[in-house]
Amino acid sequence: MKRLCSIALTMFVLAGPAWAQTPQTTASAVPATSFPVVKLGVVSFLQYSAELEESDEFNAFDVTRGYINIQAQLSNRVRARFTPDVRRVVDATLAESLAMRLEYAYLEVEAAEDTWIVFGMQETPWLTFEESINRYRVQGMMFAERQTLIPGPSDVGASVQYRGEGMEVQAGVYNGEGHERFEKDKYKSAQGRVTFG
Fold it and tell me: In the chain, where are the structural domains located?
């Protein structure tokens, strides 16, 4: 009996390290992605304003702007985006109504790792970047757009974009009219940006 207990204790001690090991699992096959993959998103700028100083005490809820963002992954290396922009228009022809305009409509092709070629109505290098880091974007247009230094956050053209670790490069040739107007002349706008961080 003493011998049987010694053998059982020895086997128990020798089997102890095996309990701490991770059990072997068979590699499961990664499911193949079926294309296209389409994502739908919505961004809206809502506000409430009240006039406390005036005698009529006007107040209103308002939708100042909204996007319907449709993005599609067409293959491993090809993506597309279509984004209409709804915003308040205050000119005489539309009598302060909401109007829909096309903001983005482009195709991206991955040319190399982290490098994309983009064609269509796309983000311009500077203004979209500036909007992405401004915490007070909801308060109105950026300074460069308000002063008409840059015609808008998107324009029709072709660009090359590199998005690597610690650096982002975007350079392109655009019509130069922005997303709200058609091309008016033969001239183009060359724009670029290099960002480290």
Answer: 33-50+58-196
